[in-house]
TrEMBL record:
SUPFAM superfamilies: alpha/beta-Hydrolases (SSF53474)
Pfam families named among the record's database cross-references: Abhydrolase_2
Domain Phospholipase/carboxylesterase/thioesterase, first and last residues per copy: 8-198
GO molecular function, one term: hydrolase activity
Highest taxon in the source lineage: Bacteria
Gene3D superfamilies named among the record's database cross-references: alpha/beta hydrolase
InterPro entries linked to this entry: AB_hydrolase_fold, PLipase/COase/thioEstase
High-level lineage: Bacteria, Bacillati, Bacillota, Bacilli, Lactobacillales
Protein name: Phospholipase/carboxylesterase
Length: 200
């Protein structure tokens, strides 16, 4: 169903769930996870939707226009896959850290908003979620690091601010970090590492 890569880390270290951006694969974010914590376990998953040959996690109608039914279905499928792998590799869904870039960040948001989701920790780089969220799911235990672009050519600033509002309105503990564009670079990687050290 999904192509993935799992690497076992040292005991009592977190497990990173790595979710790449459009056109990426399960290798893309491995160096990022290693920079954040070289001892951690890693489950890196390749999106199984192709858009002009580029791997994604869900379909879209256009840039910024999501295929909502597909997003909902794919989010549930991916979450179920991660649940299965958590049992197989014996890691905690509550303690896992979901690290997503762009399209990967967006599917991570969807999974966090699922009923009975156990996702509590997320590092979301260049996220976008241009849809209304019913405030029926509280996230009081969630800790979220959001890295967004002041002048992101793909995600307008108002959409970045919408993501911040979604999490704050649901009671999550939110840490914001702003960069220039649609990027995962040394600055927001270091900020993410500092955030990780604070929450663990």
């Amino acid at each position: 169903m999904y192509k993935y890569r799992y690497e076992k880390g040292q005991t009592k270290t977190p497990t990173f769930i790595l979710l790449h951006g459009t056109g990426g694969n399960e290798e893309d974010l491995l160096p990022v996870a290693a920079a954040l914590n070289a001892n951690a376990s890693v489950l890196s998953i390749r999106g199984n939707v192709l858009e002009h040959g580029n791997a994604r996690y869900f379909k879209r109608l256009d840039t910024g226009a999501y295929d909502i039914p597909d997003l909902m279905t794919r989010g549930q499928e991916l979450y179920a896959f991660i649940e299965e792998k958590a049992q197989e590799y014996d890691f905690s869904l509550e303690e896992a850290i979901y690290l997503g870039f762009s399209n990967g960040a967006n599917i991570a948001i969807n999974m966090m908003l699922l009923d009975d989701s156990l996702i509590n920790k997320a590092m979301l780089y260049a996220p976008m979620y241009p849809m209304d969220v019913e405030e029926t799911t509280d996230l009081p235990n969630a800790k979220v690091f959001l890295s967004m672009g002041e002048n992101d050519p793909i995600v307008p600033k108002r959409e970045s601010e919408r993501v911040v509002s979604i999490f704050k309105d649901l009671g999550a503990e939110v840490t914001e970090f702003w960069v220039e564009g649609h990027e995962l670079n040394g600055d927001n990687l270091l900020a993410g590492k500092e955030w990780l050290e604070k929450i663990q």
